[in-house]
Amino acid sequence: MLSTNNLEKRFGPVRAVDDVTLTFAENEVTSIIGPNGAGKTTFFNLITGELEPTTGQISYNGERIDGMNQHEIAQSGLIRSYQITNIFPQLSVLENVRLAVQAHRDVASLKKYVFHFSKFDAVVDDAYDVLDRAELTEVADQKAANLSHGQQRHLDICIALATDPEILLLDEPTAGMSPEETNNTLELVRQLAEEITVIIIEHDMNVVMDLSDRIIVMNDGSVLSDGNPDEIRNDETVQKVYLGGGV
Ligand SMILES: Nc1ncnc2c1ncn2[C@@H]1O[C@H](COP(=O)(O)OP(=O)(O)OP(=O)(O)O)[C@@H](O)[C@H]1O
């Protein structure tokens, strides 16, 4: 459904992403790992349209998306979670998700929602459905600013889910979380992966090994290795370059 072909991004002399050809399958959790500066974030930025490739192609559901703007790519179902920066802290949890549901509708529908309260109710119902998936229903009326760090990260994922993604990109979803919050997030991502495709950048190897169907190891902009958790754990090159033999 999503593939890259000879994808390359140069920043002056630096090849941040260097000849990356990958295909992502539906309903899999894929983790992208690698040392600092390996090109993981740049790869995400290329897929979501935040950066344009220097050369190479990106295809999504049979269409070229390289060169499309971020908004068009997001509308087509490829959504990135933005690590809390998308949250309006002074609004309630429900209002945050409701706004995201509304923003996803086109302008004509939006007018209907304003003038027909039955449609507005449907938006609220959708927002509650999303909160329910992340177990945030109980805090729906609280100010987003008052949530714990883990709950805010989940709210951020809810805001992404409210736009009905087919592919969800998550950048270090468990960063800064307590062990309990991390477990909740793992459970949430597992549930999501039953319906959508999830691609994660993650540094925590326990999370990566636990959660992933597939792991892509990047180094110096290139794909060093690509396989299931057992294959990556036993890959000698990966151990030498990245895992230090410790996993
Ligand atoms: N806007 C930019 N301008 C110049 N160089 C950049 C830019 N963005 C990234 N780079 C360089 O591209 C390379 C890849 O960086 P990138 O941030 O994609 O790596 P990363 O794997 O996400 O690293 P980290 O795990 O530290 O976030 C690095 O050498 C980085 O310095």
TrEMBL record:
<dbReference type="InterPro" id="IPR032823">
    <property type="entry name" value="BCA_ABC_TP_C"/>
</dbReference>
<keyword id="KW-0029">Amino-acid transport</keyword>
<dbReference type="InterPro" id="IPR003593">
    <property type="entry name" value="AAA+_ATPase"/>
</dbReference>
<dbReference type="Pfam" id="PF00005">
    <property type="entry name" value="ABC_tran"/>
</dbReference>
<dbReference type="GO" id="GO:0005886">
    <property type="term" value="C:plasma membrane"/>
</dbReference>
<protein>
    <recommendedName>
        <fullName>Probable branched-chain amino acid transport ATP-binding protein LivG</fullName>
    </recommendedName>
</protein>
<dbReference type="GO" id="GO:0016887">
    <property type="term" value="F:ATP hydrolysis activity"/>
</dbReference>
<comment type="similarity">
    <text>Belongs to the ABC transporter superfamily.</text>
</comment>
<dbReference type="GO" id="GO:0006865">
    <property type="term" value="P:amino acid transport"/>
</dbReference>
<keyword id="KW-0547">Nucleotide-binding</keyword>
<feature type="domain" description="ABC transporter">
    <location>
        <begin position="2"/>
        <end position="245"/>
    </location>
</feature>
<dbReference type="Pfam" id="PF12399">
    <property type="entry name" value="BCA_ABC_TP_C"/>
</dbReference>
<keyword id="KW-0067">ATP-binding</keyword>
<dbReference type="InterPro" id="IPR027417">
    <property type="entry name" value="P-loop_NTPase"/>
</dbReference>
<keyword id="KW-0813">Transport</keyword>
<comment type="function">
    <text>Probable component of a branched-chain amino-acid transport system.</text>
</comment>
<dbReference type="InterPro" id="IPR051120">
    <property type="entry name" value="ABC_AA/LPS_Transport"/>
</dbReference>
<dbReference type="InterPro" id="IPR003439">
    <property type="entry name" value="ABC_transporter-like_ATP-bd"/>
</dbReference>
<dbReference type="GO" id="GO:0005524">
    <property type="term" value="F:ATP binding"/>
</dbReference>
